[in-house]
Specification:
- With 216 residues, the protein is an alpha/beta fold.
- The chain has a domain of 134 residues: 2-Layer Sandwich (Nucleotidyltransferase, domain 5).
- The chain starts with a helix and ends with a helix.
- 25% of the residues are buried.
- It has a 5-stranded mixed β-sheet, sandwiched between helices.
- Helix 2 runs parallel beside helix 3.
- The chain is globular.
Length: 216
């Protein structure tokens, strides 16, 4: 059938216009130019230390944005892979310089505990080198369209959406509201932790690390 249609088209016929694609070639997702843009000096997740996969070490982080209605405002979300601990703050835009500043603001006090941070390939994370330098942390990028490589963060963003649904307007959200959600989620028992809370798991791991440091 298709051979007949293409023969008709070459002869000036219009049967091809009745095809769903109208003779246009399919564009496979993920091929060609990535519309999220190229990030200078990105380090692929393949080069991330294997210990990060174990989710046992405090200080291996994932970072993402939860976008507000009509793309007005966003929440920068950061989670610790080992404990599920959440850090979160509001940003007015997705500009990389603002994302850099908010990331450093949220993590500065935790700098001695930090090891790695992993994000997707959005242009908002273009200032990854500045973040890495100022926080003394190794920065890695997941592969395009591989959201499962930041699975813990994706799941946490789903929990955050319970309090800030997709149609939420972030323009007037206050830090007090954000802090309330942080407190709720960091004190919410998780099945993966034997129904301990992220705060409890964090305290436990911190004590274990201090104990090892004291012994050695």
């Amino acid at each position: 059938m298709y051979q007949y249609i293409w023969k008709d088209k070459r002869g000036g016929g219009k049967l091809y216009k009745h095809l769903r694609t109208k003779g246009k070639k399919y564009r496979k997702r993920g091929l060609g130019k990535d519309d999220r843009g190229l990030i200078t000096n990105r380090v692929d997740i393949d080069k991330r230390p294997r210990i990060v996969e174990d989710k046992k070490r405090v200080g291996d982080l994932e970072i993402d944005l939860v976008i507000g209605k009509d793309h007005k405002g966003a929440l920068l979300t950061i989670n610790d892979r080992a404990t599920g601990l959440l850090f979160m703050g509001k940003v007015e835009t997705k500009e990389s310089i603002e994302i850099e500043a908010k990331t450093i603001e949220l993590l500065q006090d935790w700098k001695p505990l930090l090891h790695t941070i992993t994000s997707d390939n959005g242009k908002e994370f273009a200032n990854h080198q500045q973040i890495a330098e100022k926080l003394d942390i190794d920065y890695f990028f997941a592969k395009p369209y591989h959201s499962w490589e930041r699975g813990a963060n994706e799941n946490l963003n789903g929990l955050i959406r319970q309090y800030f649904p997709k149609k939420s307007n972030f323009t007037n959200i206050t830090q007090k509201q954000i802090d309330r959600v942080i407190s709720i989620l960091n004190n919410r028992p998780r099945k993966r932790f034997g129904f301990k809370t992220p705060n409890e798991v964090f305290a436990q791991k911190l004590n274990e690390n201090l104990g090892v440091a004291f012994i050695t």
